[in-house]
Amino acid sequence: MDINKKIQGLKSIIREHAPLLIAYSGGVDSTLLAVLTRETIGAENMHCVLVDGPEVPRRAVTAAINQSEYLKIPLTVREGVTFSSDLQKTNPHDRCRHCKLGTYTVLKQIADDTDCKYIADGANASDLGEHRPGIEAFSSCGVIHPFIMAGITKQDIREIAYQMELPFWDKPSSACLYSRIPYGEEITYEKLRMIEKGEELLFDIGIRQARVRHHGAIARIEVLPEEMEKIIAHREQIHSFFKNIGFLYVTLDLKGYRSGSMDEVLNSSS
């Protein structure tokens, strides 16, 4: 389908579900949805909510708030629901489902307070082929996915943002810090801060897309293949810093960055 027809379909979906509350993260997907919603039904008929918690990097929160101000998107930042101690210890493979159910309770309260009829997120058609229990959880609560409903993919989203000359069109993908810890291994505040500090260093030396996967004493760094030479060039700085924040060994994953690499273990027996 022509991308302009997809955009028109998306705008029709937005109008049909106004006033609309958007689960906002500051990423390309939710930000484009927010911009198109404001353009379609006006800022007075929408609201964005950033649900904050220990799994969200501080840099991402600051960037999301600054971006919403620049784009004139109405935003509320609200503290999320903390995982129970049992979930932190077991860290199940459907962790995202539990997280989204907690997030929904926060979004629903604000939707009621702001008279928003529907809650929407930035999930897109490309997400449907991946392990995404969070999408299923949101769907079960009645959250709508306008991009999926309009048949819009991740590539479409970047193309639309580029055509609209939006500055975030090529912003690297992000994900919560929980996704850096293998399923079945306990989630702790200390691990999350180690991961966040490690990724901060990588961003500071100029790496655009990076993940620090926490495997106990081992840090497994994922970057795009074209950025591996930069890691090697800074290897002594990276190794020293990572040891200072608690890692014993520092490794570079030769396969490179890929979304959801922790999910590979779920299909390892097939």
Write up this protein.
This protein has helices spanning 3-16, 28-41, 58-71, 85-90, 95-113, 133-140, 146-149, 154-163, 189-204, 228-233, 235-244; strands at 20-23, 46-52, 75-79, 118-120, 210-215, 218-223, 249-252. The chain has 270 residues and is α/β, with parallel strands linked by helices. The strands form two sheets. A four-stranded parallel sheet has the order 3-2-1-4, with helices on both faces. Strands 5-6-7 form a three-stranded mixed sheet, covered by helices on one side. A hairpin with a 2-residue loop joins strand 5 and strand 6 (218-223). The longest helix has 19 residues, at 95-113. It is globular. The mean pLDDT is 95. One of its GO terms (molecular function) is sulfurtransferase activity. This is ATP-dependent sacrificial sulfur transferase LarE. Keywords: Transferase.
The CATH superfamily name of the largest domain is HUPs
Count of DSSP strands: 7
- Mean pLDDT equals 95
Largest sheet: 4 strands, parallel
**Can you tell me the overall shape?**
globular
Short description:
The chain has about 270 residues and is an alpha/beta fold. The protein is built from eleven helices and seven strands.
Please name the defining characteristics of this protein.
about 270 residues, alpha/beta, Rossmann fold, Alpha-Beta Plaits, 2 domains, 4-stranded parallel β-sheet, 3-stranded mixed β-sheet, about 45% helix, globular
What is the strand and helix layout of this fold?
Elements (H helix, E strand, L loop, with lengths): L2 H14 L3 E4 L4 H14 L4 E7 L5 H14 L3 E5 L5 H6 L4 H19 L4 E3 L12 H8 L5 H4 L4 H10 L25 H16 L5 E6 L2 E6 L4 H6 L1 H10 L4 E4 L18
Pfam family, one: NAD_synthase
InterPro entries: LarE, NAD/GMP_synthase, Ni-pincer_cofactor_biosynth, Rossmann-like_a/b/a_fold
GO molecular function, one term: sulfurtransferase activity
